[in-house]
Every structure is written in structure tokens, then in C-alpha cells.
Amino acid sequence: MTLLELGRALEDATGICAHSASIGRFLRKLGYRYKKNHWWPPSGVARA
Length: 48
Fold this sequence. Notes:
The protein is mainly α. It has a domain at 1-32. It is 46% helix and 0% strand. It has 2 helices and no strands. α1 (3-14) crosses α2 (20-29). The radius of gyration is 18 Å and the shape is elongated. The chain starts with a helix and ends in a 19-residue tail after the last helix.
């Protein structure tokens, strides 16, 4: 779920309109983090 989707769901459920940056800041204060996972080939595989 993206921050935009979360904001729309909040508005639909409660009628409160919040900017996605504000929602993200609030979630970070609660300890929620998002880290991109990168796929790397195994170390034994040579790159072309």
C-alpha cells in the first residue's frame, strides 16, 4: 500500500484529509521503515 492509497483510505474512513508527507512522517515516528531490496546474483556467478 502506498502513502497515497493510505491517505485515501483514511479520508474514506474518517473524513480527515492528510498529505502523504504527513502520513509518512507519522509512520516514521512510530518506527515503520521501508527499505528497497535489491537483487544481486550469487557471488559465484560472473557478470557479463
